[in-house]
Protein backbone atom coordinates (compact mmCIF):
# COMPACT_ATOMS: atom_id res chain seq x y z
CA UNK A 1 0.00 0.00 0.00
CA UNK A 2 1.20 3.46 -0.91
CA UNK A 3 -0.40 5.95 1.49
CA UNK A 4 0.72 8.91 -0.58
CA UNK A 5 -1.12 7.51 -3.59
CA UNK A 6 -4.26 6.79 -1.59
CA UNK A 7 -4.41 10.32 -0.23
CA UNK A 8 -6.42 12.95 -2.10
CA UNK A 9 -4.17 15.36 -3.95
CA UNK A 10 -5.67 18.49 -2.33
CA UNK A 11 -5.17 17.02 1.15
CA UNK A 12 -1.59 16.08 0.35
CA UNK A 13 -0.86 19.64 -0.77
CA UNK A 14 -2.77 21.70 1.79
CA UNK A 15 -1.07 23.66 4.53
CA UNK A 16 -2.92 23.00 7.81
CA UNK A 17 -4.18 25.75 10.11
CA UNK A 18 -1.54 26.59 12.67
CA UNK A 19 -3.01 27.60 16.02
CA UNK A 20 -1.35 29.57 18.77
CA UNK A 21 -1.14 26.35 20.79
CA UNK A 22 0.63 24.60 17.92
CA UNK A 23 3.29 27.29 17.75
CA UNK A 24 3.94 27.30 21.47
CA UNK A 25 2.75 24.54 23.77
CA UNK A 26 5.08 24.65 26.79
CA UNK A 27 4.84 26.39 30.17
CA UNK A 28 5.10 30.19 30.43
CA UNK A 29 4.50 33.04 32.86
CA UNK A 30 1.96 34.82 30.69
CA UNK A 31 0.05 33.69 27.65
CA UNK A 32 -0.83 36.60 25.39
CA UNK A 33 -0.76 34.68 22.13
CA UNK A 34 -4.29 33.36 21.53
CA UNK A 35 -6.61 36.28 22.23
CA UNK A 36 -8.04 34.39 25.18
CA UNK A 37 -9.78 36.09 28.08
CA UNK A 38 -7.55 36.11 31.20
CA UNK A 39 -10.60 35.48 33.41
CA UNK A 40 -12.70 32.37 34.02
CA UNK A 41 -9.82 29.87 34.30
CA UNK A 42 -9.40 27.10 33.33
CA UNK A 43 -12.11 27.33 30.67
CA UNK A 44 -10.68 30.54 29.24
CA UNK A 45 -7.84 28.61 27.62
CA UNK A 46 -8.02 26.71 24.35
CA UNK A 47 -7.58 22.97 24.89
CA UNK A 48 -4.49 21.03 23.83
CA UNK A 49 -5.12 20.44 20.10
CA UNK A 50 -3.36 17.05 20.27
CA UNK A 51 -4.74 15.95 23.67
CA UNK A 52 -1.29 14.78 24.78
CA UNK A 53 -2.11 14.01 28.41
CA UNK A 54 -5.25 12.09 27.51
CA UNK A 55 -3.46 10.10 24.80
CA UNK A 56 -0.75 9.13 27.32
CA UNK A 57 -3.46 7.73 29.58
CA UNK A 58 -5.20 5.90 26.76
CA UNK A 59 -1.86 4.59 25.56
CA UNK A 60 -1.45 3.01 29.01
CA UNK A 61 -4.76 1.15 28.99
CA UNK A 62 -4.64 0.14 25.32
CA UNK A 63 -0.96 -0.76 25.01
CA UNK A 64 -0.65 1.43 21.91
CA UNK A 65 1.83 4.31 21.47
CA UNK A 66 0.32 7.84 21.58
CA UNK A 67 1.44 8.59 18.01
CA UNK A 68 -0.84 5.78 16.80
CA UNK A 69 -3.89 7.28 18.50
CA UNK A 70 -6.35 9.85 17.14
CA UNK A 71 -9.13 11.23 19.31
CA UNK A 72 -12.32 12.54 17.77
CA UNK A 73 -15.73 13.98 18.58
CA UNK A 74 -17.18 10.47 18.79
CA UNK A 75 -16.27 7.79 16.24
CA UNK A 76 -18.26 9.91 13.82
CA UNK A 77 -15.30 12.25 13.42
CA UNK A 78 -12.65 9.73 12.28
CA UNK A 79 -15.28 8.13 10.01
CA UNK A 80 -15.86 11.49 8.30
CA UNK A 81 -12.14 12.31 8.20
CA UNK A 82 -11.39 9.01 6.46
CA UNK A 83 -13.74 10.01 3.64
CA UNK A 84 -12.44 13.56 3.44
CA UNK A 85 -8.81 12.46 3.39
CA UNK A 86 -8.98 9.49 1.03
CA UNK A 87 -12.13 9.58 -1.11
CA UNK A 88 -12.44 11.88 -4.11
CA UNK A 89 -16.11 12.99 -4.30
CA UNK A 90 -17.97 11.67 -7.34
CA UNK A 91 -15.11 9.36 -8.26
CA UNK A 92 -13.99 7.01 -5.50
CA UNK A 93 -15.99 4.32 -3.73
CA UNK A 94 -15.91 2.25 -0.55
CA UNK A 95 -16.89 -1.36 0.11
CA UNK A 96 -18.86 -2.44 3.13
CA UNK A 97 -20.94 -5.26 4.61
CA UNK A 98 -24.75 -5.07 4.74
CA UNK A 99 -26.46 -4.66 7.15
CA UNK A 100 -24.12 -2.60 9.29
CA UNK A 101 -23.81 0.69 11.20
CA UNK A 102 -25.59 3.51 9.35
CA UNK A 103 -22.93 6.20 9.74
CA UNK A 104 -20.65 4.82 6.99
CA UNK A 105 -23.41 5.33 4.42
CA UNK A 106 -24.27 8.79 5.78
CA UNK A 107 -20.65 9.93 5.73
CA UNK A 108 -20.32 8.50 2.20
CA UNK A 109 -23.45 10.36 1.04
CA UNK A 110 -22.26 13.65 2.54
CA UNK A 111 -19.00 13.24 0.68
CA UNK A 112 -20.66 11.98 -2.52
CA UNK A 113 -18.97 8.59 -2.41
CA UNK A 114 -20.49 5.38 -3.75
CA UNK A 115 -20.97 2.53 -1.24
CA UNK A 116 -20.59 -0.99 -2.66
CA UNK A 117 -22.29 -3.37 -0.27
CA UNK A 118 -22.13 -7.11 0.06
CA UNK A 119 -24.93 -8.84 1.88
CA UNK A 120 -23.89 -10.86 4.92
CA UNK A 121 -24.62 -14.59 4.86
CA UNK A 122 -27.64 -16.00 6.70
CA UNK A 123 -25.49 -16.53 9.82
CA UNK A 124 -24.31 -12.88 9.55
CA UNK A 125 -20.73 -13.83 8.67
CA UNK A 126 -18.96 -12.13 5.76
CA UNK A 127 -16.70 -13.29 2.98
CA UNK A 128 -13.48 -11.36 2.39
CA UNK A 129 -13.42 -12.64 -1.18
CA UNK A 130 -16.86 -11.19 -1.87
CA UNK A 131 -15.84 -7.77 -0.51
CA UNK A 132 -12.60 -7.91 -2.49
CA UNK A 133 -14.63 -8.86 -5.55
CA UNK A 134 -16.58 -5.59 -5.29
CA UNK A 135 -13.41 -3.49 -5.17
CA UNK A 136 -11.75 -1.71 -8.09
CA UNK A 137 -8.90 0.79 -8.39
CA UNK A 138 -11.14 3.54 -6.95
CA UNK A 139 -12.04 1.58 -3.79
CA UNK A 140 -10.26 3.51 -1.06
CA UNK A 141 -11.86 2.20 2.13
CA UNK A 142 -13.36 -1.09 3.32
CA UNK A 143 -15.57 -0.96 6.41
CA UNK A 144 -16.12 -3.97 8.67
CA UNK A 145 -17.91 -3.57 11.97
CA UNK A 146 -17.00 -6.23 14.56
CA UNK A 147 -19.01 -6.94 16.66
CA UNK A 148 -21.43 -5.75 14.01
CA UNK A 149 -24.35 -3.40 14.63
CA UNK A 150 -27.21 -4.47 14.37
CA UNK A 151 -26.41 -8.19 13.98
CA UNK A 152 -24.39 -8.35 17.26
CA UNK A 153 -21.79 -10.88 16.06
CA UNK A 154 -18.02 -10.72 15.93
CA UNK A 155 -16.64 -11.19 12.44
CA UNK A 156 -14.20 -14.02 11.77
CA UNK A 157 -10.65 -12.84 12.41
CA UNK A 158 -9.22 -14.94 9.58
CA UNK A 159 -11.59 -13.31 7.08
CA UNK A 160 -10.72 -9.85 8.37
CA UNK A 161 -6.99 -10.52 8.06
CA UNK A 162 -7.52 -11.86 4.54
CA UNK A 163 -9.30 -8.63 3.67
CA UNK A 164 -6.58 -6.49 5.24
CA UNK A 165 -3.83 -8.44 3.45
CA UNK A 166 -5.46 -8.19 0.03
CA UNK A 167 -7.37 -4.90 -0.09
CA UNK A 168 -5.51 -2.10 -1.86
CA UNK A 169 -6.99 0.69 0.29
CA UNK A 170 -7.48 1.14 4.03
CA UNK A 171 -9.48 -1.40 6.02
CA UNK A 172 -11.49 0.21 8.80
CA UNK A 173 -12.52 -2.16 11.59
CA UNK A 174 -15.13 -0.60 13.87
CA UNK A 175 -14.72 -2.11 17.33
CA UNK A 176 -17.27 0.03 19.20
CA UNK A 177 -18.51 -3.05 21.09
CA UNK A 178 -15.18 -4.84 21.52
CA UNK A 179 -15.14 -4.55 25.33
CA UNK A 180 -18.09 -6.95 25.38
CA UNK A 181 -16.05 -9.54 23.44
CA UNK A 182 -12.86 -10.00 25.50
CA UNK A 183 -9.69 -10.85 23.61
CA UNK A 184 -11.13 -10.30 20.15
CA UNK A 185 -9.63 -6.91 19.25
CA UNK A 186 -7.38 -6.52 16.21
CA UNK A 187 -5.34 -3.89 18.07
CA UNK A 188 -2.42 -6.32 18.69
CA UNK A 189 -2.17 -6.70 14.87
CA UNK A 190 -1.90 -2.96 14.19
CA UNK A 191 1.87 -2.82 13.72
CA UNK A 192 1.75 -5.61 11.15
CA UNK A 193 -0.71 -3.84 8.83
CA UNK A 194 -0.07 -0.25 7.66
CA UNK A 195 -3.51 -0.17 5.97
CA UNK A 196 -5.46 -1.03 9.13
CA UNK A 197 -7.54 1.56 11.00
CA UNK A 198 -9.32 0.45 14.18
CA UNK A 199 -12.15 2.50 15.64
CA UNK A 200 -13.14 2.30 19.29
CA UNK A 201 -15.23 4.59 21.47
CA UNK A 202 -15.94 5.73 25.01
CA UNK A 203 -19.66 5.67 24.23
CA UNK A 204 -20.50 2.06 25.06
CA UNK A 205 -18.58 0.01 27.67
CA UNK A 206 -17.16 3.17 29.26
CA UNK A 207 -20.59 4.76 29.62
CA UNK A 208 -19.49 8.14 28.25
CA UNK A 209 -21.68 8.63 25.16
CA UNK A 210 -22.51 12.12 26.41
CA UNK A 211 -18.98 13.50 26.36
CA UNK A 212 -18.39 12.49 22.69
CA UNK A 213 -15.01 10.81 22.58
CA UNK A 214 -14.00 8.32 19.92
CA UNK A 215 -10.63 6.74 19.18
CA UNK A 216 -8.92 5.70 15.98
CA UNK A 217 -5.78 3.53 16.08
CA UNK A 218 -3.57 3.43 13.01
CA UNK A 219 0.00 3.93 11.77
CA UNK A 220 1.59 7.27 12.77
CA UNK A 221 1.45 8.31 9.08
CA UNK A 222 -2.34 7.89 8.97
CA UNK A 223 -2.76 9.63 12.34
CA UNK A 224 -0.73 12.58 11.00
CA UNK A 225 -3.19 12.90 8.11
CA UNK A 226 -6.16 12.99 10.50
CA UNK A 227 -4.41 15.64 12.59
CA UNK A 228 -3.70 17.70 9.50
CA UNK A 229 -7.37 18.04 8.48
CA UNK A 230 -9.29 17.89 11.78
CA UNK A 231 -10.76 20.98 13.46
CA UNK A 232 -7.85 22.40 15.47
CA UNK A 233 -9.53 22.08 18.87
CA UNK A 234 -11.79 19.10 18.19
CA UNK A 235 -11.85 17.78 21.77
CA UNK A 236 -12.97 20.40 24.28
CA UNK A 237 -11.53 20.88 27.77
CA UNK A 238 -14.56 19.43 29.58
CA UNK A 239 -14.39 16.20 27.57
CA UNK A 240 -10.63 15.85 28.05
CA UNK A 241 -10.90 16.41 31.80
CA UNK A 242 -13.85 14.09 32.29
CA UNK A 243 -12.22 11.33 30.25
CA UNK A 244 -8.98 11.62 32.27
CA UNK A 245 -11.03 11.31 35.42
CA UNK A 246 -13.16 8.36 34.32
CA UNK A 247 -10.27 6.36 32.87
CA UNK A 248 -9.01 6.16 36.45
CA UNK A 249 -12.12 4.09 37.14
CA UNK A 250 -11.27 1.29 34.74
CA UNK A 251 -12.18 -1.33 37.35
CA UNK A 252 -15.66 0.18 37.49
CA UNK A 253 -15.96 -0.06 33.72
CA UNK A 254 -14.93 -3.70 33.91
CA UNK A 255 -17.56 -4.32 36.59
CA UNK A 256 -20.21 -2.69 34.37
CA UNK A 257 -19.20 -4.96 31.51
CA UNK A 258 -19.41 -8.05 33.75
CA UNK A 259 -22.88 -7.04 34.93
CA UNK A 260 -24.07 -6.34 31.39
CA UNK A 261 -22.74 -9.67 30.12
CA UNK A 262 -24.56 -11.52 32.91
CA UNK A 263 -27.71 -9.50 32.20
CA UNK A 264 -27.40 -10.30 28.49
CA UNK A 265 -27.46 -14.04 29.24
CA UNK A 266 -30.39 -13.66 31.62
CA UNK A 267 -32.37 -11.42 29.28
CA UNK A 268 -31.77 -13.80 26.39
CA UNK A 269 -33.12 -16.75 28.39
CA UNK A 270 -36.15 -14.83 29.59
CA UNK A 271 -36.99 -13.57 26.10
CA UNK A 272 -36.67 -17.05 24.62
CA UNK A 273 -39.61 -18.21 26.73
CA UNK A 274 -42.14 -15.86 25.08
CA UNK A 275 -44.35 -17.48 22.45
CA UNK A 276 -43.91 -14.48 20.09
CA UNK A 277 -40.11 -14.68 20.17
CA UNK A 278 -38.87 -16.60 17.13
CA UNK A 279 -35.13 -16.32 17.57
CA UNK A 280 -32.44 -14.59 19.58
CA UNK A 281 -29.25 -14.15 17.62
CA UNK A 282 -25.94 -14.84 19.38
CA UNK A 283 -24.49 -11.59 20.74
CA UNK A 284 -20.93 -10.39 21.32
CA UNK A 285 -22.17 -6.89 22.17
CA UNK A 286 -24.34 -5.07 24.73
CA UNK A 287 -27.54 -5.64 22.77
CA UNK A 288 -29.66 -8.47 21.45
CA UNK A 289 -31.14 -8.80 17.99
CA UNK A 290 -34.45 -10.57 18.50
CA UNK A 291 -36.68 -11.98 15.77
CA UNK A 292 -40.38 -11.92 16.62
CA UNK A 293 -43.84 -12.59 15.29
CA UNK A 294 -45.02 -9.03 14.48
CA UNK A 295 -41.95 -7.01 15.56
CA UNK A 296 -43.66 -3.72 14.67
CA UNK A 297 -46.71 -4.53 16.78
CA UNK A 298 -44.56 -5.36 19.78
CA UNK A 299 -42.43 -2.28 19.21
CA UNK A 300 -45.55 -0.07 19.23
CA UNK A 301 -46.89 -1.81 22.34
CA UNK A 302 -43.59 -1.24 24.17
CA UNK A 303 -43.49 2.43 23.15
CA UNK A 304 -47.02 2.90 24.51
CA UNK A 305 -45.76 1.42 27.75
CA UNK A 306 -42.71 3.64 28.01
CA UNK A 307 -40.10 1.11 26.88
CA UNK A 308 -38.16 2.10 23.78
CA UNK A 309 -36.22 -0.44 21.74
CA UNK A 310 -34.95 -0.16 18.16
CA UNK A 311 -37.13 -1.41 15.33
CA UNK A 312 -34.82 -2.98 12.76
CA UNK A 313 -37.55 -4.86 10.90
CA UNK A 314 -37.06 -2.85 7.70
CA UNK A 315 -33.33 -3.57 7.63
CA UNK A 316 -32.01 -6.16 5.19
CA UNK A 317 -31.66 -9.65 6.78
CA UNK A 318 -33.34 -8.34 9.96
CA UNK A 319 -37.00 -8.67 9.02
CA UNK A 320 -39.31 -8.82 12.00
CA UNK A 321 -36.39 -8.07 14.33
CA UNK A 322 -35.94 -5.63 17.19
CA UNK A 323 -32.60 -4.52 18.58
CA UNK A 324 -32.77 -4.45 22.35
CA UNK A 325 -30.00 -2.82 24.39
CA UNK A 326 -29.07 -4.66 27.59
CA UNK A 327 -29.92 -2.26 30.41
CA UNK A 328 -29.57 -2.37 34.18
CA UNK A 329 -31.21 -5.32 36.00
CA UNK A 330 -34.11 -3.01 36.91
CA UNK A 331 -34.59 -1.78 33.34
CA UNK A 332 -34.47 -5.29 31.91
CA UNK A 333 -37.01 -6.44 34.48
CA UNK A 334 -39.44 -3.71 33.36
CA UNK A 335 -39.07 -4.85 29.76
CA UNK A 336 -39.81 -8.48 30.73
CA UNK A 337 -42.78 -7.48 32.91
CA UNK A 338 -44.29 -5.42 30.11
CA UNK A 339 -43.90 -8.32 27.68
CA UNK A 340 -45.52 -10.71 30.19
CA UNK A 341 -48.63 -8.51 30.13
CA UNK A 342 -48.92 -9.37 26.44
CA UNK A 343 -49.57 -13.07 27.02
C1 LIG B 1 -22.40 3.19 18.92
C2 LIG B 1 -21.49 2.95 17.79
C3 LIG B 1 -20.37 3.76 17.61
C4 LIG B 1 -20.06 4.89 18.54
O1 LIG B 1 -20.13 6.09 17.94
P1 LIG B 1 -19.68 7.39 18.76
O2 LIG B 1 -19.74 8.45 17.73
O3 LIG B 1 -18.29 7.11 19.25
O4 LIG B 1 -20.64 7.55 19.88
C5 LIG B 1 -19.49 3.48 16.58
N1 LIG B 1 -19.70 2.44 15.78
C6 LIG B 1 -20.76 1.63 15.93
C7 LIG B 1 -20.93 0.48 15.04
C8 LIG B 1 -21.69 1.87 16.93
O5 LIG B 1 -22.76 1.07 17.06
Automatic annotation (TrEMBL):
Q: Per the UniProt record, which EC number(s) apply here? A: 2.6.1.9
Q: Which residues carry this modification: N6-(pyridoxal phosphate)lysine?
A: 204
Task: Report the transmembrane regions from the record.
Answer: none
Top EC category: transferase
Q: Which InterPro entries match?
A: Aminotrans_II_pyridoxalP_BS, Aminotransferase_I/II_large, HisP_aminotrans, PyrdxlP-dep_Trfase, PyrdxlP-dep_Trfase_major, PyrdxlP-dep_Trfase_small
Q: Which cofactor does it need?
A: pyridoxal 5'-phosphate
Which UniProt keyword terms apply here?
Amino-acid biosynthesis, Aminotransferase, Histidine biosynthesis, Pyridoxal phosphate, Transferase
Give a Pfam family name.
Answer: Aminotran_1_2
Which CDD domains has this protein been placed in?
A: AAT_like (cd00609)
An example molecular function term from Gene Ontology annotations: histidinol-phosphate transaminase activity
- GO BP terms in the entry: L-histidine biosynthetic process
- Pathway linked to the protein: Amino-acid biosynthesis; L-histidine biosynthesis; L-histidine from 5-phospho-alpha-D-ribose 1-diphosphate: step 7/9; Lipid metabolism
Q: Where is the Aminotransferase class I/classII large domain?
A: 42-339
Per its record, the protein catalyses: L-histidinol phosphate + 2-oxoglutarate = 3-(imidazol-4-yl)-2-oxopropyl phosphate + L-glutamate
Tell me the PANTHER family matching this sequence: HISTIDINOL-PHOSPHATE AMINOTRANSFERASE, HISTIDINOL-PHOSPHATE AMINOTRANSFERASE-RELATED
Q: How does it assemble?
A: Homodimer.
Q: Which family does it belong to?
A: Belongs to the class-II pyridoxal-phosphate-dependent aminotransferase family. Histidinol-phosphate aminotransferase subfamily.
Protein name as annotated: Histidinol-phosphate aminotransferase
- Annotated organism of origin: Mangrovibacterium marinum
Amino acid sequence: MNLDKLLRENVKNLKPYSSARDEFSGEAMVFLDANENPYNAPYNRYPDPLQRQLKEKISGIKGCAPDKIFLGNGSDEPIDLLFRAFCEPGKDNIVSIDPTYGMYQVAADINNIEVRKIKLKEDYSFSADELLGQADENSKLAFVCSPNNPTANLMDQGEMLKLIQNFKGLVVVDEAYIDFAPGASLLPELDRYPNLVILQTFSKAWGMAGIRLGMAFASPDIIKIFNKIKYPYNINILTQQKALELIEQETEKNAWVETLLAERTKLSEQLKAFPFVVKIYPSDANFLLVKLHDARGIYDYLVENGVIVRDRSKVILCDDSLRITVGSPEENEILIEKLKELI
